[in-house]
Specification:
By secondary structure, this protein is an alpha+beta fold. Helix content is 20%, strand content 25%. It binds calcium ion (3 copies). One calcium ion binds next to loops.
């Protein structure tokens, strides 16, 4: 196919050249050869367009593996807020969401631009142009950020500002993220038992052009401090409220002071943010190998929908998701002023890791089964192989899901 495109491009170029050179130089082309060159050039152009249309069908249903659109952008105060993306006088929340879309919608991690979520709790919500199916035992989507391995390789990670990932199904079918949310249970739930604060809550208060004070529901208080590198307002300018409250899970602090371990001439201070093993955004580098821009770190940045848990931290076994939310998961700041400031999650892109499977799941026969059909004619199973739609659920409405029946997959909608 590449060969055909190259050939068409070459022919198109030759014919167009012939025609344009003849025209420019006013060469004595006979009327016949003139019109032939013109015709050939047109023909090549038409066939080229035809091939392009085969390759890239202009269909509204074309699926992309990247984010289709941002639904919500509600950062907590921070040094990058009002800057990444930039707030301009008069911007509303809708304008800021549009600016987020311009930075990340439809783009992969190489082409997109960062969106900052500010201090703990700040979030962004987005969706894809299709549901992402949950393949058993596999990571299903990745959230890309700007985490990186520190240069001295003294610790695992180094600039890891973990954001907590949440997922949701559009259960009420209105296309809006107004349904039940589930948190992805990352590695801190098993590696840092007792150090994760669930049901955490922080309130930030507006303090124009000053440090932003906060209090939490554990009796703590503090500030998001201004620095000389970022001179804009740190509280989201487009919001009318003077207070912003966020609720969720607080991950354990991960900052280490390794200043004694480096040459003072190289750097007077060396603080690092140790990475968590899995299950967060902006926690591990986008690439497994710094020197290889194709070595996407699907393992470290990938999320398995099966990790989703409910409010009681119990697995919920979703077979697909429609919305993703990411929020800043840490409430810590660097003790050295003018150094790193608050820890804040940034995201740059997100990606369905198995677009084909998600599309296949969507394209399955959307048959209208009744519960009785499923009970009496053939049992149905979910993707984990468990009996689906058991008799105890007979009175419940059928929720959209993928079922396996007689060895064939169906999308029940
Ligand atoms: Ca999965
Ligand atoms: Ca909804
Ligand atoms: Ca970051």
């Amino acid at each position: 196919m590449i060969y055909i495109i190259k050939r068409q491009l070459r022919q198109l170029g030759q014919h167009f050249d012939l025609w344009s050179i003849a025209k420019r130089e006013q060469l004595p082309l006979s009327l016949d050869s003139w019109s032939r060159a013109k015709k050939l050039s047109k023909l090549s152009l038409l066939s080229f367009i035809f091939i392009l249309s085969l390759l890239f069908p202009l269909s509204s249903s074309a699926q992309s593996k990247y984010i289709q659109a941002v639904d919500e952008y509600r950062p907590a105060p921070g040094q990058y807020v009002n800057d990444v993306p930039e707030y301009e006088e008069g911007d509303t929340e809708v304008d800021m969401i549009r600016k987020c879309n311009e930075r990340i919608a439809g783009l992969g991690p190489i082409d997109a631009h960062l969106v900052a979520l500010g201090g703990w709790g700040g979030y962004i919500t987005f969706h894809f142009d299709h549901p992402i199916v949950n393949l058993p035992g596999q990571r299903d989507f990745a959230v890309w950020g700007n985490a990186y391995q520190e240069m001295r390789h003294l610790v695992f990670g180094g600039m890891n500002e973990a954001g907590i990932v949440m997922v949701s199904q559009d259960t009420n079918g209105n296309g809006k993220p107004d349904d039940q949310w589930y948190e992805i249970s990352g590695s801190c739930d098993v590696d840092s038992v007792g150090k994760v604060v669930y049901n955490y809550e922080v309130t930030y208060r507006r303090n124009p052009m000053g440090d932003i004070p906060w209090t939490d529901n554990q009796g703590n208080s503090g500030t998001i401090d201004r620095n000389h590198y970022h001179t804009q307002e740190y509280f989201p300018q487009w919001l009318a409220d003077d207070e912003l409250t966020f609720r969720g899970t607080r991950l354990p602090d991960n900052m280490l002071n390794l200043s004694d371990m480096v040459d003072q001439a190289w750097s007077p201070y060396y603080y690092v943010l140790v990475g968590f093993r899995y299950g967060y955004a902006d926690n591990l580098p986008n690439f497994a190998d710094d020197a290889d821009a194709t070595s996407y770190n699907y393992e470290g940045c990938g999320i398995d929908i099966s990790w989703a848990v409910d409010d009681q931290r119990q697995p919920v076994n979703l077979d697909h998701i429609d919305f993703v939310r990411v929020y800043s998961g840490m409430n810590q700041k660097c003790p050295q002023p003018e150094w790193w400031g608050e820890t804040s999650t940034e995201i740059i892109s997100a990606e369905d890791l198995h677009l084909e499977a998600s599309i296949e799941a969507m394209g399955m026969d959307r048959l209208q089964f009744t519960v009785d059909d499923l009970q009496e004619n053939a049992p149905a199973y979910d993707l984990q192989g468990r009996r689906s739609l058991s008799s105890s659920k007979r009175t419940s409405p059928l929720t959209p899901q993928i079922i396996i029946r007689n060895g064939k997959k169906f999308f029940l909608k």
